From TrEMBL:
Residues 115-125 have a biased composition (Polar residues). Residues 63-108 form the DNA-binding protein H-NS-like C-terminal domain. SMART domains: HNS. InterPro entries: H-NS_C_dom, H-NS_C_dom_sf. Residues 105-114 have a biased composition (Basic and acidic residues). GO terms for molecular function: DNA binding. This is Histidinol phosphate phosphatase. It comes from Bradyrhizobium manausense. Residues 105-125 are annotated as: Disordered.
Length: 125
């Protein structure tokens, strides 16, 4: 619609056109808002999903599985408390080291094949 056409209209026609435009704009804004809310909810669900559930990012690197680390040190007061020697030292070990103990005192004895074989031989005789 050209500007001259609008200027040629009387007040009543312009007001009806204004109301019609307002109605159409409101419908389009509502539709756009619903589309954006739908996209936001999808992004929120994706953000809350576990890495396996995230299918929109197939190029995301997969973490390598590391072998289980066996414990090397134990708490003599509570043998179930162990430490692998990696990462931060547990509180029980820090306290013991500060009180004058040496790390080697807490080492878990390694099982060797020679000692296992001699034990087996003694059991069979």
């Amino acid at each position: 619609m050209r500007k001259e056409d609008l200027e040629a209209m009387d007040f009543e026609e312009l007001w009806l056109l204004h109301e019609e435009l307002t109605k159409v704009l409101a419908e389009k804004i509502t539709a756009e808002k619903q589309e954006l809310e739908k996209r936001l909810s999808q992004l929120y669900r994706l953000d809350q999903a576990t890495p396996d559930e995230r299918t929109l990012e197939p190029s995301a690197p997969v973490r390598r599985k590391y072998p289980k680390v066996i414990p090397k040190y134990y708490n003599p007061l509570r043998p179930s408390e162990t430490w692998s020697g990696r990462g931060k030292q547990p509180r029980w070990l820090v306290a013991a080291l500060q009180s004058g103990h040496v790390l080697e005192e807490f080492k878990i004895p390694e099982k060797t094949e020679a000692s296992d074989t001699s034990t087996n031989e003694q059991e069979h005789s």
